[in-house]
Design goal:
Elements lengths: L1 H11 L2 H9 L3 H24 L5 H26 L4 H6 L2 H20 L4 H30 L1 H29 L1
Helix pairs in contact: 1-4, 1-6, 2-3, 2-4, 3-4, 4-6, 6-7, 7-8
Length: about 180
């Protein structure tokens, strides 16, 4: 289930581009892209079944890769239709794709290492996944912010918002105590 949800992240980041395609009356292009990816994913499931390698891990991995590729493709198509270069959107993808690869590998590793550990294994696996994801995402985000001016500005804005939110929480606590 964790792996399937990771794949749905890729599907979700294509949604703004899908809405753009619908708005400019290119919904059939979006339907064609969706159909192509669904056919590719279905063919992969059938091939894995025919070779006797179909499993939840294979299905979830295909879902993750398929949904991410779909999200990237829809965004590239929307950028091209809007007259923007596809290179710009591609420079934004590594942070999503690399964290997904890390999550897939981390999930496979923790599931293998903690197989048969019961509820404690599930909790330990989830904690390990969270730590791995945090370490991977933070390092990638730092590298990305260093190389992309707009990302650096967005990060500063996010940090400012977080600081203001924490200050409001602190003020509310102090008011409730007084």
């Amino acid at each position: 289930m964790r792996l399937l949800l990771v794949g749905l992240i890729g599907y979700a980041f294509g949604m703004p581009a899908v809405q753009y395609l619908i708005t400019i009356n290119r919904q059939w292009l979006q339907v064609a892209i969706s159909g192509a990816f669904l056919a590719g994913m279905g063919a992969t499931y059938l091939a894995a079944s025919a070779m006797g390698h179909m499993s939840l891990m294979v299905a979830a991995s295909v879902d993750a890769v398929g949904y991410y590729a779909y999200g990237i493709t829809v965004q590239i198509v929307a950028h091209r239709i809007a007259g923007m270069p596809a290179r710009r959107i591609l420079t934004l993808m590594p942070i999503h794709v690399l964290t997904t690869v890390e999550l897939l590998l981390g999930a496979a590793l923790t599931d293998r290492l903690l197989d048969g550990a019961g509820a404690a294994g599930v909790v330990l696996g989830a904690a390990t996944q969270a730590i791995l994801f945090g370490a991977c995402w933070l390092s990638l985000a730092a590298a990305f912010a260093h190389s992309h001016d707009a990302a650096r500005d967005d990060l500063r804005l996010l940090l400012d918002l977080a600081a203001k939110g924490l200050e409001r929480v602190r003020s509310a606590i102090l008011r409730s105590i007084a």
